[in-house]
Amino acid sequence: MTRLMLGRTLERICKGILLLCLVHFAIMMILYWDVYIQRFDIFNRFNTRNYSRMSHFFNFSKPNSTLPTLGIASDHFLASEKSEANVTTEKPLPPCPDVPPGLVGRLLIEFSTPMTQERLRKENPDVKEGGRYSPPDCKARQKVAIIIPYRNREHHLKYWLHYLHPILRRQKIDYGIYIINQHGDDTFNRAKLLNIGYKEVLKDADYDCFIFSDVDLIPMDDRNLYHCYDQPRHFAIAMDKFGFRLPYAGYFGGVSGLNKTQFLKINGFPNEYWGWGGEDDDIYNRITLNGMKVSRPDVKIGRYRMIKHDRDKHNEPNPQRFTKIQNTKITMHRDGMNSLQYHLIETVRYPLYTNITVDIGKPPPRPPRG
Ligand SMILES: *[C@@H]1O[C@H](CO)[C@@H](O)[C@H](O)[C@H]1NC(C)=O
Ligand SMILES: *[C@@H]1O[C@H](CO)[C@@H](O)[C@H](O)[C@H]1NC(C)=O
Ligand SMILES: [Mn+2]
Prior knowledge:
Elements: H1 2-39, H2 44-57, H3 71-89, H4 117-123, E1 132-133, E2 143-150, H5 154-170, E3 174-182, H6 190-204, E4 209-213, E5 217-219, E6 233-234, E7 238-239, E8 255-259, H7 260-265, H8 279-289, E9 303-306, H9 321-324, H10 328-331, E10 343-349, E11 354-359
Helix pairs in contact: 1-3, 2-3
The structure holds 2-acetamido-2-deoxy-beta-D-glucopyranose (2 copies) and manganese (II) ion.
């Protein structure tokens, strides 16, 4: 009796082991098949998806990380690296999702951590020379140029790069970063620098969308997506310096974005606002006078932190600004992209941005008062 029972138990154990072996064998076959199809590059869509899933499985996030010691893993590694190269050269990527999956929402922004070039480089190894980036796993619908009017603000630029590169990456934006550096010590002219930015970045790539950002403004929420919209976009609607509210209904300052059609419809921005203020109101007028509306994010999402600073030298408030914005309807036709004149000094590509230095001239002599 006991012998019989023992025999049966043994038989069950054997069957169990056999079943386990079969399952194991099946799993191995699936894994090998996966490697096999990647190597021979069949079913490419299926295989791109698998690449990301499998690489999580083997826990290496970057193709250039160290080779795992497991035979099958390294085999897979080589195969997937090959297939990834193929994907970028021949295979169309799937379109990027409308709502990027990796966003985190509200961000903590502070300006006290010391920021070095080295740290910035380490944080952004996948940004290409000149500050260019495109999502590795999907095709973005727009190519976005981010244009920053600039003079002597290295300290701000470092924080801007530190915060914005990772945000834009999470947003799955295909982008390039350009500072338009005003050469010399003459009066600053923000809007003219932005026009120059539009013109110069199109020499670099075929951009569809242009986002104009001050160097000291950092978004506090990564759901504020940096691409273009159906109507000209105003991004920086709730800055800390204005108590996180829109200062007035027609405010269009800080960070804004227009696509090519929208920008050309308003003849670009005015070139004749020298010194601080007014140019953003003129741009707002151009937009509404040309039958467009300003689009804005939700007030909870459009929050910004501004890096505190004193007023720059040679950027005094422009006393003519109040009268000038009364005349946009007349001036916009002759003052803009169709009248833009400047001298390009040089374009230098740095690892995290492109620096375009220009001579924009100086304001015309003021008529004597009286
Ligand atoms: C820009 O946006 C407008 C809508 O305002 C749209 O009709 C147009 O196709 C867009 N143009 C480009 C070049 O994306
Ligand atoms: C940009 O280029 C100009 C001219 O080469 C240089 O003087 C300036 O320091 C550069 N600025 C930055 C932030 O790279
Ligand atoms: Mn400022």
